[in-house]
Specification:
By secondary structure, this protein is an alpha+beta fold. It has helices at residues 9-20, 68-77, 97-104, 111-125; strands spanning 25-31, 55-58, 61-64, 81-86, 126-132. A hairpin with a 2-residue loop joins strand 2 (55-58) and strand 3. The radius of gyration is 18 Å and the shape is globular.
Length: 141
Amino acid sequence: MAQSENINIGALEILEKLCLAGIKYIYLSEHSCEAIAPDYLKPYLHFAASGNPEKISLQGHDEYTVKFSFLQKIAETFNYHVTRGCFADFLQPDFNNRVQTALRLAAPQTDEQEILRQFIHDLYKYEYLVMKIPFEYLRKF
């Protein structure tokens, strides 16, 4: 970890606790600082993978995006098999004219366009991890 790098310690701690508890299946998802838009969507989606958790300012507190490569390493350290991806892996939008128009605009002109833009953005900005511990590593409680 770089000296000036942010870290979402809560995500790391909860995953470690789940792994230590021997939970057989774990699913996590959140905004990722490592997400990359596919090439065909780069004209529409304007985010780059900084690799450094980004601050999200909310009313009354701040949150940070998650560095999924750290979470993946934690799970693999505990012998979990990990599947990692973005929501668009299983929610494939129809890029019809209405969606393309909403994405092309510098600013949305309707509520529907704003919702479409945010939804498509999140399909690629959110990552997930599905973790499964092999039977031979399950603890006997």
